[in-house]
Amino acid sequence: LYVTVGTGISSCLVLDGIPFTGAHGATGTMASSPLSVTCEKCAHVNQRTLEDIAAGPALVAGYNQRRPGGTKSGQEVLAAAAAGDVDATDVVRKAGEALEATVGLFVNVLDPEAVIVGGGLGLSEGAYWETFIASTRRHIWSDVHRDLPILRAGTGLDAGLIGAAAAAWKRFR
After folding, report:
1. pLDDT in tens, the chain (173 residues)
2. Which of 5, 17, 18, 97 is such that its CA lies 20 to 30 A from the CA of 46?
3. What DSSP character marks residue 157?
């Protein structure tokens, strides 16, 4: 299972080295639908998407709500968290925890051999990655899957582009 986390969040199941595109070619939109969770205490229905919580622009928005005008990029929020900024650390932690619930669900449902993570945030060091890994493992229900390899994309920020080019090359050569 490949997951990319940056300005947006998407995924792709890869079967025998080939990206699975589904019946209609529209797979990969794991973070664009509202989570639609009703609060048991107040009955408020959450209409936010995973991208609204855990993608780069969400980190910026969350941090700037606490410190208006404080940052312009997710990487700046990550740097502030690494420097010990309590507000940035809280925003980053919450984003990592939100992402993990979805990835944990994917692992539980799809039974992948490994999870490969790419994108600007997905490849980051520090609190986002650490929270994501620890929280994902807590949401994997099966002992068989709990120690599943969760790895950074070996080709860095270009992993998605390289994968798409390889798939196109295989298809049209």
Report:
1. 999 888 888 888 888 887 888 888 777 777 777 767 777 888 888 778 888 888 999 999 999 999 887 788 888 999 999 999 999 999 998 888 888 888 988 999 899 999 999 988 888 888 778 888 888 888 888 888 888 999 998 888 887 778 778 778 877 88
2. 5
3. G
Beta carbons of 14 and 20 less than 8 angstroms apart: yes
Predicted model pTM: 0.83
φ and ψ of 38, to 5 deg: -90, 130
Report CA-CA distances (Å) from 156 to 15, 24, 129, 152.
Answer: 21, 29, 14, 8
Cα–Cα dist 20/28, whole Å: 9
Q: How far apart are CA 71 and CA 44, in angstroms?
A: 30
Task: Look at residues 32, 7, 21, 17 and name the one whose alpha carbon lies nearest to residue 114.
Answer: 17
Residue 124 Cα to chain centre, angstroms: 11
Write down the H helix ranges in the chain: 50-54, 56-66, 74-82, 86-110, 127-139, 143-146, 159-172
> What's the rounded Cα separation, in Å, for the pair 104 and 108?
6
Edge-to-edge strand ranges of the sheet holding 115-118:
9-12, 2-5, 115-118, 150-152
Strand partners of residue 10: 4
